[in-house]
Amino acid sequence: NIEDFGISSVPADIGCNFRTTVRAAGVHSQTLTLTDSNSNILWSTEDGKCSADSMYLDSGESYTLQFTSTSNNVNSSVSMIMDYSITVYQPLLIDDDGMALLRSTTTLEPTELTEMIVDNPTYHKNPKSLDAKLIYSLFIPCLGVGAMVFILMRSMARGYEWEMNKCYGCDLCDDACPVRLFNAGDKLNIIYNTWNNEDDGVPLYSCLTCTACTNACPQLVDYDSYVDIRRSLIVGGPPATEIPHTLLQAVLAAEAEESADEAFISVEEYPIDSNIGYYPGCVDYIDQEMIFSHVNEGTMDLGDTTTAAFTLFEDMGSDVTYLGRDFLKCCGHDQKWQGMTEVFEKLKSYNQKKLGESGIDTLVTSCAECFKTFAMDYELDDMKVMHTTEYLIENGFDMNLQAEEDVTVTYHDPCRLGRQMNIYEEPRELVRAVDGVELVEMEHTKEDGLCCGVSSMMSCNENSRALRIQRFDEVKATGADVMLTSCPKCVSHFECLKFEGDPKHDFEILDIVSFLARQVNAKNQ
User: Fold this and answer.
1) 12 strand-pairing partners
2) Angle, alpha carbons 249-254-259 (nearest 5°)
């Protein structure tokens, strides 16, 4: 039912999504239908495939949304992931204090709300804010290719300008933004910059793309993808001042070039003896670079994450092939989110081709950023991509472990694994299964968890340091002996703060696979 606020119709988004955990597995059909109170079909998907659309619906009317899905020729190893929704957007309501009002937070009657309606000055605008930046694409030598790139990017940009039009200024994204917690500056400028053709301020390079804003947004505006597109339009990528580990980034950028291919072992010569492959990510590079950058010995050993993962695989009798960094290149996560699209596409092309020739049908990684990149930004046909915690749960890891001593732990949700891939329970299930371990949650957890403060190896500054200090304060408040997480990048960023030597930060920081491997090693002694 759509409430009648005294306006004839309200905008709505309708659509469904469908995917399988293994690409191109099975035959599937989905139908989503919207009917009115007289059973008239107002909208429906076509050709048995999910799609989405926008429309206006009459106020004061009742509607029915029906979704059906059928799947054939799939086995039990394949999971179908689907969702459908219709979102109806309320008019802009301004209360007596001049603040935007959410219908879901008030008990006022519709007749009272009618008096608060004001025209949204941006909702129906179609700004030209990105045209100047897109002119750069016309400088591609081939005019035909340049024109196609221009049209494609213009279409993408227009799409996200339409996304921005959904905003009615409730400021919830501003309140949720971890960067805004500490910069004490102006409000978020994401939308303002769109209208004014500007690229400075919080959104472009200080943004952590942690999805906290979208998680808080009542209109579900996808800010991360918007920032991704904006960054990709900037010629030359981010300023060098935004990259704290320039040596590491230079190494990875050089690795993307075709001339570097000969440094990697071919598929024919690499010892692949399983259909399951484990990719370690760039942990060894990060380990060495971080320690070097801070001019100290440090205690961080990110390579232990890989060693620990194979300890767990061996304990459960799972045959997994190590796909080292002498076989695959960097996944390209950082390059993609820095706006270095050309570098990312080169890395992606090389890795996709090699994985396709390897015979691997399941790719496992402990890095949340690698996991998200392989699963969402690559086209790995017929390949299942899993985070290590998922793989352990799904493949029968023996949960009967006993801690040598009673220990209290807390868990930090990586943004890429949690808010962006919706994996919250698997890591917690693994921890809770260990006898003698008490898991206590921090103040901000799961969907509301704080970011570790650094994304894509950018913006390692006082703002991100302040964010880690707040996270450490939350760890101390739990009384935990160990802070666990499920991403070596998060471990490295938190260890960076520990390097400063504050005696208050006396808890241990571990990747969850390292923590579990410690219990397995103790059991087998």
Assistant:
1) 55, 88
2) 170
Q: Which CATH class is domain 131-232?
A: mainly alpha
Question: Helix (H, G, I), strand (E, B), or coil: what is residue 94?
Answer: strand
Backbone angles phi, psi at 456, to 5 degrees: 60, 30
Q: Do domains 131-232 and 244-394 have the same CATH topology?
A: no
Q: Cα–Cα distance between 494 and 286 in angstroms, integer?
A: 13
Q: Which two tokens stand for residue 151?
A: 């049209």
Count of Cβ atoms closer than 10 Å to residue 9 Cβ: 13
| Partners of 402 in beta bridges | 435
| Domain 244-394 -> CATH class | alpha beta
pLDDT computed for residue 392 by the predictor: 93
Contact, 414 vs 368, CB < 8 A? Answer: yes
Q: What is the pLDDT of residue 256?
A: 87
Residue with tokens 């380990």: 287
For the segment 348-368, the average pLDDT, to the nearest whole number, is 93
Give the pair of three-digit tokens for residue 74: 């799939």
For 377-507, list the strands marked E by DSSP: 384-387, 401-411, 434-439, 482-485
The two structure tokens encoding residue 428:
């917690």
The amino acid at residue 208 is L
Options 3.30.70, 1.20.120, 3.40.50, 2.60.40; CATH for 401-524 is 3.40.50
**pLDDT tens-digit profile of 279-329?**
988 876 666 555 544 444 556 677 788 889 999 999 888 899 999 888 999
Burial group, residue 189, by CB count within 10 angstroms (0-12, 13-18, 19+): middle
Digit-coded pLDDT (tens) for 106-119: 888 888 878 777 65
- Specify the DSSP class assigned to residue 204: I
Residue 140, pLDDT score: 36
**Which residues are paired to 36 by β-bridges?**
63
Domain boundaries, the chain: 9-88, 131-232, 244-394, 401-524
CB 318 within 8 A of CB 276: yes
Cα–Cα distance between 511 and 525 in angstroms, integer? 22
